[in-house]
Structures are given as structure tokens and as C-alpha cells.
Amino acid sequence: MKILIVGSGGREHALAWKCAQSPRVSEVLVAPGNGGTATEPRVRNVDVASEDVAGLVALAKAEQVGLTIIGPEAPLVVGVVDAFIAAGLRCFGPRQAAAQLEGSKAFTKEFLKRHGIPTAAYATFTRENFDPDWVRRQRTPIVVKASGLAAGKGVVIVDSADEAIATAQAMFGGQFGSAGNEVVIEEFLPGEEASFIVMADGKNIVTMATSQDHKRLKDADAGPNTGGMGAYSPAPVVDRAMHERIMREVIEPTIRGLAKDGTPYTGFLYAGIMVHPDGTPNVLEYNCRFGDPETQPILMRLRSDLVELCEAALDHRLDRVQADWDPRAALGVVLAAEGYPDSVRKGDAIHGLDAAAKLPGKVFHAGTRMQDGAVVTSGGRVLCAVGLGEDVSAAQRQAYALVDAISWQGMQCRRDIGYRAIARERSGE
Ligand code: AMP
After folding, report:
1. What per-residue confidence (pLDDT) applies to 192?
2. Whether residue 188 has its Cβ less than 6 Å from ligand 1
3. What are the E-state strand segments in 77-121?
4. Ligand 1: which of 157, 185, 216, 294 to mutate, most ligand atoms within 8 Å of CB?
5. What are phi and psi of 280, to 5 degrees?
6. How far apart are CA 110 and CA 122, in angstroms?
7. Is pLDDT at 152 greater than 90 in this prediction?
8. Parallel, antiparallel, or unpaired: how do β-strands 91-92 and 65-70 relate?
9. Whole-angstrom distance, CA of residue 376 vs CA of residue 368
10. How far is the CA of 263 from the centre of ligand 1 (A)?
11. d(CA 223, CA 355)
12. Burial (CB count within 10 angstroms: exposed 0-12, middle 13-18, buried 19+), residue 391
């Protein structure tokens, strides 16, 4: 069977690498892919953009693709799964109506409230009904969010009502294009963040291994927010009791609620959770796809056949399968280009990939492309070096051995990925 992976990031490289290991798979196509998927065994890049819905359907038909997996959110939000289903093609991901969970924070907040799922208190405004006095009555800090897709940049946390009002007005004024037509303003929640990722088939749920990512650019969680500078799995913040609470109070009511609302959810579902000091798992956001960079360490630990899991989901029999995990920890460090997360330098030759390939662990590519037979940088997050180990400390050592083999001009990365879990390991918690 041929598989098609849609997207071009580190997540898609990991999905393609994992699917290529399935004995049922003859070839994995990636549209459009990157420099890593270009050289992965049994994987081939195809030059179709990830939001070219008609082009993707035509490709899947022409190549007789048996299963398509959508990596990023943008094609899901524009309805690529609906187009595949209409063409009689098997495609793993939520339909457009269910992908609103990521495409519209206003929709999500209303959904969470209606179904009694814990989340921060909030109000939604448009330019027309914006109420600065309501904002002035809120406790600080205040969180201001553009409702639509804003490439991970649409959340601003401010310390005063005046800043919150100015931020909202900038969003109404087009700072994030139409993503800011609606703005959600919500209470700031203290606590520790955790990612919780599942596969759903409309009704049944299989949980992925727990993980935690690092959003800030610099060590010790300083500097600006990014798409993610590293992640590890398992995440000790989600112990067995918290796992059960998140399933019971968040994931199960969400999947049930979507089915009841007539928009059943099939695909990866990613809940961004803030675990309050009192233990409440509050939903910060939903993503309608696997996380990046969480996918890379999580798939390093997946022993089961990912293709079989996706097929089981499309056949509505996730209740009859299980995901089997390597008990070891995995940890991924993102290597980013100079300037990231703002405008980045591109086109630099990457050194040391051959040496890294001889070391244990795996380097997944994101913003890379092939140029005259060499791999050069072509985006902000360039690589994700993933190590495995008996615990998070050992996985971290393996990942940084890969990092230290690689270089290019202006390369930047954090040196402390996994520090919270490692502190817990050292204190014997
Ligand atoms: P989101 O895209 O909604 O997950 O927001 C991006 C990041 O902003 C999250 O990962 C949190 O670190 C932070 N954040 C979002 N909402 C809140 C909140 N209500 N309280 C505290 N931090 C938040």
C-alpha cells in the first residue's frame, strides 16, 4: 500500500519515517516534504503544496494511495479531509467542521463552556462589540488571543488592562489578518503545562504517550514564544491519576460532545492543558493534529504500526486496538536558524549530518531542502535531534550528542530541554 503524508515539517518527516517501517507499506509519498524526507528510505517527495486540495486529491488518485495522513492544521481547516472523503479516498484527520476546534478559539471556548469542560473564564469580542470596561474589570495578567489561525503567534499575555485593550485593538486592526476578526480575552491560569495527544475515530480513543514541549526560545523558559524548541516523552507532570482526570474531564467529554453536535472527530487531537496547582486540568487550546515537535519523540517510542492504528480509526474500531510504547524516554531538541522566531536566514549549508547519522538516535528534518546534492536550511525550525534513554536524563545526553555533531552558521538551540523532568528524576519524585 502507498501512504501519502501531507506537510513539510519535522512532524511530517517523523510520520513518514514511521509509516515507512510498516510491513504493509510499499512507498510513502510526502507532499511537499523536505530535505530529510527526500533521502529517507522508501520515502519520496512530490511537489504538491499542502493546501492545494485539488492537487492532493489528484495525486492520491493518480498514485493509488491507500491512506493519507494530514500533518499540519491549515489543510484540515480548509477542508482537505472532506474533499478526500468526497472523492472516495481514505484520509486520516478531522473534517473541516471538527477542525474548527483549532481554527476558531471562539468556537472552542463556547464548546468547552457548553460541555462543562474546564477552561479559563473568558469573553469573545469583535471590533463592533468590544467592551474596554469589561477588560478593565478583569484581574491581571490578562491573556488576549486572536481567534483564528495566526501561525502560533496570536496569543499575547499582558500585565495591564490598557495593554490588553491595545493588543485587542491591534488584532481587530488586522495584525493577524482575518484571524483577529474575533478576539478571545481570558483569565491567566497559573500551573504547569502538559500536552495530551490522542487518536479518535469519532467515538473511541487511543491515547498517545504523554509529552511536554518547550515553547520559549531561550534556556530556563526565557525569550519569545516559538513553535516549540524541544519536547520529551513521557512527561512526569501527567502521572496516572492526572492521565485519568484528563481523559474523564477533558478528552472523553470533548469527543462525546463533538459527536452529539453532529461533527464527530476522527484524527489526532492535541489538548494543550494547564494543570492548575489545585489539580484541575484546564484546556488552553486544542490542535486538530499531532504536535510539532512532540510527534518526533512520541513516534520514536511507538512500537505499534502507525498505519494499522490509522486504518483502525478510519474503520471505527479503535476500541479494539492498543498503542504499544517503548518504556524508554525520548527527547527532541530543535535546531533553529539564525533570527528565529522572527525573520530567518536561509540557504546555509548544514554540516555534520553524516556524522550524526552514525550516532544512536534520529535527526528529523523540518526547514531543510536539497540543493546540488547538499542539505541547506530553508526555514526557522531546521532540525529536531531525538535521543532515547532509560530515563529523560539519558535521552537528553543522546539528543545533545547528535546536536553537537551538527552545525551551520547562526544555528541556535536550547541546552536545557527536559529540565523539569530531569529535576524530578534527580529529586527522586
Ligand atoms: P495557546 O495557543 O492558546 O495554547 O497559547 C499559547 C501559550 O500561551 C500556551 O502554551 C500558554 O503558555 C500560554 N497561555 C495561553 N492561554 C493561557 C492562559 N489562560 N493562562 C496562562 N497562560 C496561557
Report:
1. 86
2. yes
3. 91-92
4. 157
5. -70, 125
6. 10
7. no
8. parallel
9. 6
10. 26
11. 31
12. middle
Q: Residue whose CA is closest, atom 7 of ligand 1?
A: 155
- Cell numbers found for residue 165: 485593550
Joined grid coordinates for residue 396: 537528553
Q: Is the CB of 284 under 6 A from ligand 1?
A: yes
- Provide the grid cell at 351: 554540516
**What amino acid is encoded at 388 in this protein?**
L
For residue 342, give the C-alpha cell.
522572527
Counting every residue written for the chain, the total comes to: 429
274: β partners: 193, 282
Task: Provide the grid cell at 244.
Answer: 485519568
Gap between the Cα atoms of 387 and 303, Å rounded: 16
Check if 213 has its Cβ closer than 6 Å to any atom of ligand 1. Answer: no
Instruction: Output the CA torsion sign for 90, 92, 98, 100.
Output: negative
> Which of these, 299, 301, 293, 321, lies nearest to 309 by C-alpha position?
321
The average pLDDT across 387-415 equals 98
pLDDT tens digit string along 314-343? 999 999 999 999 999 999 999 999 999 999
Single-letter residue type at 275 = V
**Sheet of 91-92, strand order:** 43-45, 27-32, 2-7, 65-70, 91-92
pLDDT tens, position by position, 204-227:
999 999 999 999 999 999 998 898
Cell output for 37? 524526507
284 CA to middle of ligand 1, Å? Answer: 6
Task: Tell which atom from ligand 1 comes closest to the C-alpha of 120.
Answer: 19
> What tens digit of pLDDT does each residue of 92-134 get?
999 999 999 998 999 999 999 999 999 999 999 999 999 999 9
CA angle 322, 96, 275 (to 5 degrees): 55
Q: Is pLDDT of 376 > 90?
A: yes
C-alpha cell read off for 265: 472527530
End-to-end CA gap in the chain = 46
